[in-house]
Design brief:
Elements lengths: L1 E2 L2 E6 L2 E6 L23 E7 L10 E12 L2 E6 L13 E4 L4 E5 L1
Antiparallel strand pairs: 1-2, 2-3, 4-5, 4-8, 5-6, 6-7
Length: 106
């Protein structure tokens, strides 16, 4: 179902609207220069490609990752929320490159 560029997803009792245009990558270049270890214990937002390409469908889903370690400059953590469009679930281990970081929260 489409409504002015928005996609409707019905997940039982959790009905959500997702704006396909709002899902574009928004990487923050200022975060790329920070020491990767400074992100340990924080939540970083990263975009994950959805593989979708139809009108009004999001091509990227932005998810929060709780960072627990860094190895060779790659941040490692666990997905902190449940995605709608990618084949991961809350708690899955994921890697984040510094150039993929869109936002940070404590």
């Amino acid at each position: 179902m489409h409504n002015h560029g928005h996609t409707h997803k019905d997940h039982g009792d959790a009905i959500q609207w997702v704006c396909g245009e709002c899902m574009a990558a928004r990487v923050d270049p200022s975060l790329q220069t920070k020491d990767p270890a400074s992100f340990i214990g924080k939540y970083v937002k990263r975009g994950f490609p959805t593989g979708l390409s139809g009108p009004g469908q999001p091509t990227v889903e932005h998810m929060w990752v709780k960072i627990s370690s860094v190895k060779d400059g790659v941040l490692r953590g666990r997905l902190a929320n449940d995605p709608l469009y990618i084949r991961l679930r809350c708690g899955h281990r994921v890697d984040v490159l510094p150039e993929q970081i869109e936002a940070v929260q404590d």
